[in-house]
Amino acid sequence: MEKRGQHTxxxxxxxxxxxxxxxxxxxxxxxxxxxxxxxxxxxxxxKFLAGDAAxxxxxxxxxxxxxxxxxxxxxxxxxxxxKQDEVAITDETAAIQLKTVYPIMASKVNSLSPVILNxxxxxxxxxxxxxxxxxxxxxxxVGKGITITDKxxxxxxIMQIPCDASPAPAVNTLLLDAGHGDDDFGFVGNSxxxxxxxAIIASNLGKSLIGLGFDKAKLFYSRKSMDxxxxxxNKAALPEKxxxxxxxxxxxxxxxxxSNNVKAYYLASAGEKVRKQSRSIGCLALNSLVARPxxxxxxxxxxxxxxxxxxxxxxxxxxxxxxxxxxxxxDSQESTAxxxxxxxxxxxxxxxxxxxxxxxxxxx
Length: 364
Ligand SMILES: [Zn+2]
Hints:
There is one protein chain. This protein has helices spanning 2-38, 43-62, 194-211, 272-290, 333-336, 344-356; strands at residues 67-70, 78-82, 86-91, 100-103, 111-112, 115-117, 138-142, 145-149, 174-178, 188-189, 192-193, 219-221, 246-253, 261-267, 299-305, 322-329. The protein is an alpha/beta fold. It has two domains: 43-149, no CATH class; 174-356, Zn-dependent exopeptidases (Aminopeptidase). The strands form four sheets. A six-stranded mixed β-sheet has the order 12-9-13-16-14-15. A hairpin with a 2-residue loop joins strand 7 and strand 8. The longest helix has 37 residues, at 2-38. It binds zinc ion.
């Protein structure tokens, strides 16, 4: 009996231990299954995207002026959440969504508008089809603010140059120079001569100004003013320069590419007043041209030039405000198509230039 009693005592200890082990085993198996489910298989992708996005923002903070960055990596499965100090990426296809966060350098000067791109889908609504829309972030820096949008939102026009607060008084006497002329063809490309296109622009601009009430007697053309067409080299001493409010010299660029940039040059060596007025009108013209999406302008620049630096700078005068407006690219059909006589975009171009000269209204 004593022995049997001993045996019972051993059983009484072992059976509960066995039950405990079994229960713990089951709990562990459940836990492992759960961990398998939430394992973060896209951790490296998320870390990469978060790091990239944060680095772009850090770089934009450091960029002087305005800038735009299109981020075109394959971001299909991921949500981007931007806050002032961090970027968080979520895998929208994961069963349990874990954010991967990357810090953004703090900036006291610049600001970032918080936004979530590709916002989370409601539970049960998320399928691979519903995720086919990519959240491809477009980073835009205007002044000191950064905004981030995706492809579904309208592309912002950011190419604006800060102009002087007080606009120059309207131009009432103007010397209009169609760049080059006579045996000086200017740039040649795309079966076109620069001198022919500048003549089309100048004559259309003249008509547009007169249509707006500009006094015909106060409008002078550099190439039409003598019996023989005037070439570039003979324009420096044009007597018509005297008493002008403004000199506008029109050129076409040459980029050997497809870009449609517009540049306005003003004379660096002119006195402060003349330089300021020239820069101001150039700035207005560039900003109003680039605001027209139908003109397809890819970039604008406002640049000081020296008398001998640019092929048209000799046209400018230290004592008279003026700019050389170099429009587009002779090599590009896309660019020169705007200068066909009667083209709607030529009307738009000349209307915007007229506006910059202080002749408002009648812009089509
Ligand atoms: Zn030229």
